[in-house]
From TrEMBL:
This is Zona pellucida sperm-binding protein 2. GO terms for cellular component: cell surface; extracellular space. Coiled coil: none annotated. Gene3D superfamilies: Laminin (2.10.25.10), Zona pellucida, ZP-C domain (2.60.40.4100). Residues 1-18 form the signal peptide. Residues 26-295 form the ZP domain.
Length: 400
């Protein structure tokens, strides 16, 4: 093992190696340094470890001070695991670690009447530990010393909390319950956690709607199953759209609103329930993609307005509602759609038609009597009158 100690001098203080009675350096995983404090006028609070004082103070590292036996000495430790990283130079023969320990006394306030400038009292000590890059060991037998190295991890105890809410199309603001929606406008939902971690994703497994706050209600409309949008019979292809899933922070989807059949309008309410879980992408073997199957077992409990229900396998069911859906008013119910004759709704618009004997005018609303049909009717009436006259004449002639 080779130990090198270099002393560099800056500013107004001049220090020679002859002034240093002793300086010891113990090179290990934690470097221990003992330096004479009296002749160097060292103050433990002024020791910093950095490549240069011109660097930001946020990058400076403070050594760990220790109480030594000699009151005239300063004993401190440098621990690389605490951020006190050395300058490393490596060759095929050795590896050299160098720390620069600065004795920094700060700026001196200018005297009264002096120029507005500052000078600094500072100097640095460089400590280097040099280790051989390779070791050759010869022995009749070797008993290995196995050390288990553990990596420190940041742990947080507690339970993640999920929230389910309704938002506008841009997800810029949350809508307050109850949410009023006109059918078939879209409903936008987001499920999010109470904390954000870029390595923790929100995994949306399944979602469904019920007419009340009971997620176990057998009357339901499936929205998402196994992380994918459900294609219900008779629905358009975009009836349910998942815009974000298995991503950090939250999951998002939207669906076309609807009404229950047969349910009277005052009772048209919908509660949405979603089964979600969190997934740590750093854990080997975790499947944090949408390719997953939702479990079937759940504990039974009603969920009202965002409360949650813990189920098996660390899954959770979150619910929110109610959404009050309104059927659109038929355009024919307002002033008969503007039609003079009959009104029929086609593609949510009024279409006018006229009764027999009249035709629809070019304005698409008013009716006019069909003249050709009127003339044909007059001829028929005349012929019937003549026929009755002939029958009456023949009857009187037969009586005579």
């Amino acid at each position: 093992m080779m130990i090198r100690i270099l002393l560099l001098v800056f500013g107004l203080v001049e220090v020679s190696l002859a002034q240093v009675d002793y300086a010891t350096l113990d090179c290990n995983d934690t470097v221990t340094i003992v330096v004479n404090a009296t002749k160097l006028n060292l103050n433990a609070s002024n020791l910093v470890i950095t490549k240069s004082l011109s660097e930001s103070e946020s990058t400076w590292c403070r050594p760990l001070m220790r109480g030594g036996i000699d009151p005239n000495a300063v004993e401190f430790q440098i621990r690389p695991v605490n951020g006190c990283l050395p300058v490393i130079k490596e060759t095929t023969v050795y590896i050299n670690y160098t720390w620069t320990v600065w004795v920094y006394n700060g700026g001196l306030a200018p005297a009264k009447g002096a120029p507005p400038i500052l000078r600094y009292k500072s100097f640095c000590l460089k400590f280097s530990c040099c280790f051989a890059n390779k070791y050759n060991l010869t022995a009749p037998y070797v008993i290995p010393m196995i050390e288990k190295v553990t990596r420190p991890t940041i742990m947080k105890q507690g339970k993640f909390q999920f929230k389910l809410g309704y938002f506008d199309q841009a997800y810029g603001g949350q809508l307050k319950n109850p949410v009023n929606v006109l059918v078939p406008n879209r409903v936008y939902l987001k499920i999010w956690m109470n904390v954000f971690n870029p390595n923790i994703v929100v995994k949306l497994l399944m979602c469904w709607a019920t007419p009340d706050n009971n997620p176990e209600n057998m009357k339901r409309y499936s929205l998402i199953m196994d992380g994918k949008a459900v294609m219900n019979q008779g629905d358009p292809a975009d009836a349910v759209v998942i815009t974000k899933n298995c991503k950090p922070g939250d999951a998002r989807f939207n669906f076309m609103s609807f009404v229950w059949v047969p349910v009277p309008p005052p009772a048209q309410m919908i509660f949405v329930h979603c089964m979600v879980k969190i997934c740590n992408t750093l854990v080997p073997g975790n499947n944090c993609t949408t390719n997953a199957t939702a479990p079937s077992g759940r504990k039974r409990r009603d969920v009202i307005g965002g409360n949650s229900d813990v189920i098996e396998d660390q899954h959770e069911v979150v619910s929110s509602g109610p959404i009050i859906f309104h059927q659109p008013v038929s355009p024919c119910k307002v002033n008969n759609g503007g039609c003079q004759g009959y009104c029929t709704v086609v593609a949510r618009r009024p279409v006018c038609s006229c009764p027999s004997g009249s035709s629809l005018n070019r304005d698409g609303y008013s009716c006019d009597v069909d003249e050709l049909l009127y003339n044909d009717n007059v001829i028929i009436y005349v012929m019937i009158f003549i026929l009755f006259g002939v029958v009456a004449f023949l009857y009187k002639k037969q009586q005579k």
